[in-house]
Amino acid sequence: MTAFTAGFGLGLSLIIVIGAQNAFVLRQGLNRAHVFAVCLVCALSDAILIIAGVSGFHYLVDAFPRLEAAARYGGAAFLAAYGARSFWVAARASQTLQAAERAKGKLAAAVAACLALTWLNPHVYLDTVVLLGSVSTQYPGARPAFAAGAVGASFAFFFGLGYGARVLTPLFSRPVAWKILDAIIGAVMWSVAASLLIGS
After folding, report:
1. Angle made by CA atoms 11, 13, 18, in degrees to the nearest 5
2. Distance between CA 80 and CA 86 in Å, rounded?
3. What is the predicted pLDDT for the residue at 125?
4. What is the pLDDT, as a whole number, of residue 200?
5. Biggest CA pair distance of the chain
6. What pTM value is reported for the model?
7. Distance of alpha carbon 188 from alpha carbon 18, whole angstroms
8. What residue spans of 32-167 are helical by DSSP H?
9. 185-197: per-residue pLDDT in tens?
């Protein structure tokens, strides 16, 4: 139980910080657009990475540093483009929550964007594969419990964020709220992209 609690607490503390992935899930939740699929993709992706890290996959990342560089520049390019799109939407859109719900978009596009925001972001690997993988070594014999705690935190957070966003429904009945949200999402995307490039 101690290892499980430690994994849950550390996993939650790492994932709760606002980032590109979380901002996307929040917007999907507000839009009520493919919420279950998006939350499931994020949580399962985290689970795969956490299990890989606890199993020792971080040694492979250390052995092949070009993997990190490729993910860094590819992720920065994607985030920059997605951020520009968010700013464009913020400048032009006049939607209300009701209008947004009628135009949810295709499931495949939402899942593809979710996968890209997850797997093209090097910060995800640093948090799940490297950091959680390293900390798990402090629990010899209980690493599966540690991993289960971290995975549980991911599922709880993403589904809580996706479905909890509906609490904000009254606020997003006004077009200006959507403009502000999209501007914030654009700023988050660009700040993460910049951090990837500055850290290279």
Report:
1. 110
2. 10
3. 80
4. 53
5. 55
6. 0.70
7. 8
8. 35-54, 58-63, 65-92, 97-101, 107-119, 122-125, 133-135, 143-164
9. 788 778 867 876 7
